[in-house]
From TrEMBL:
Its EC number is 1.17.1.8. GO terms for cellular component: cytosol. Signal peptide: none annotated. It catalyses: (S)-2,3,4,5-tetrahydrodipicolinate + NAD(+) + H2O = (2S,4S)-4-hydroxy-2,3,4,5-tetrahydrodipicolinate + NADH + H(+); (S)-2,3,4,5-tetrahydrodipicolinate + NADP(+) + H2O = (2S,4S)-4-hydroxy-2,3,4,5-tetrahydrodipicolinate + NADPH + H(+). Residues 131-267 form the Dihydrodipicolinate reductase C-terminal domain. This is 4-hydroxy-tetrahydrodipicolinate reductase. It comes from Pelagimonas phthalicica. GO terms for biological process: diaminopimelate biosynthetic process; lysine biosynthetic process via diaminopimelate. NADP(+) binds at R38. NAD(+) binds at G11, V12, S13, G14, R15, M16, E37, G101, T102, T103, A125, G126, N127, M128. Catalyzes the conversion of 4-hydroxy-tetrahydrodipicolinate (HTPA) to tetrahydrodipicolinate. The gene is dapB. Homotetramer.
Amino acid sequence: MTEQPGVVVTGVSGRMGQMLVREILAHDKLRLVGALERAGHDWVGRDLGEAMGAAALGIAVSDDALEVFAKAQAVIDFTAPAATVEFAALAAQARAVHVIGTTGMTEEDLQKIHVAARHAVIVRAGNMSLGVNLLTQVTKQVAAALDADWDIEIIEAHHNRKVDAPSGTALMLGEAAAEGRGVDLDEVSDRGRDGITGARKKGDIGFHAVRGGDIVGEHEVLFATGGERISIKHMASDRSLFARGALKAALWGQDKAPGEYDMLDVLGLKG
Ligand SMILES: NC(=O)C1=CN([C@@H]2O[C@H](COP(=O)(O)OP(=O)(O)OC[C@H]3O[C@@H](n4cnc5c(N)ncnc54)[C@H](O)[C@@H]3O)[C@@H](O)[C@H]2O)C=CC1
Ligand SMILES: O=C(O)C1=N[C@H](C(=O)O)C[C@H](O)C1
């Protein structure tokens, strides 16, 4: 029997990092082989299990990406854009599947990830849950069925520590709506209205970000026209669903050809 793929978790002290560690330790087809944090973080050099307030795991938290990636068949990365761009090149060098959950990336960042995907499998999604990925497909279908007399607004809500807006998921939903409608999102996107904005421009897709407390992640796509509204919504109440999606992607990517993939590929929802 072949050995189980070894996984490195980056940003291991973070909300998603710790959730990923717990899910990998409970997984029967993946094993944890490394843990990475940013240089200067007080977890670096400590045993991961002890740093998490549990029993020792025999895995020291490292700040040396190149060294830990060399042991991995998959790198699961929910950190920050600058770190993720750097990890994409290093994971490709190590020929490890790079699962990217990080959001808030610029076009320039995405271009660098695209270059790294020439040599390795990269699975990237602003949301790793089955429900949200299904919602993108439904959004595309509804947008394709309705004309521009239906206004599309995307409303998202997250915890008060989130640093990027609109969320990666909101952008995925916006892309899906724009694709369904046959328009370019960059041309019709209207973000965070404020002041005397004038009347809503026909065909625009609006984005609104709520931030508060410990909201895990909520996304609503609203289609509104004279006399009626359609609202489709996803509510995440537990981060473990994002972590489980990421583990699925890490396993799925093991036998794939180099390239960029998303969760629709992993979940078999493309089409
Ligand atoms: N795609 C998805 O399904 C989901 C995506 N996310 C995204 O994941 C990212 C992280 O979210 P959270 O865990 O809530 O944030 P967090 O702030 O709790 O964790 C981020 C971690 O990354 C670490 N980090 C930053 N730079 C680093 C570097 N150069 N090397 C190693 N570690 C580094 C930080 O020290 C921190 O521990 C965000 O972009 C968020 O939007 C979050 C949940 C689900
Ligand atoms: O930062 C978060 O927490 C989340 N980020 C992702 C996003 O930007 O959409 C996914 C999820 O909603 C949680």
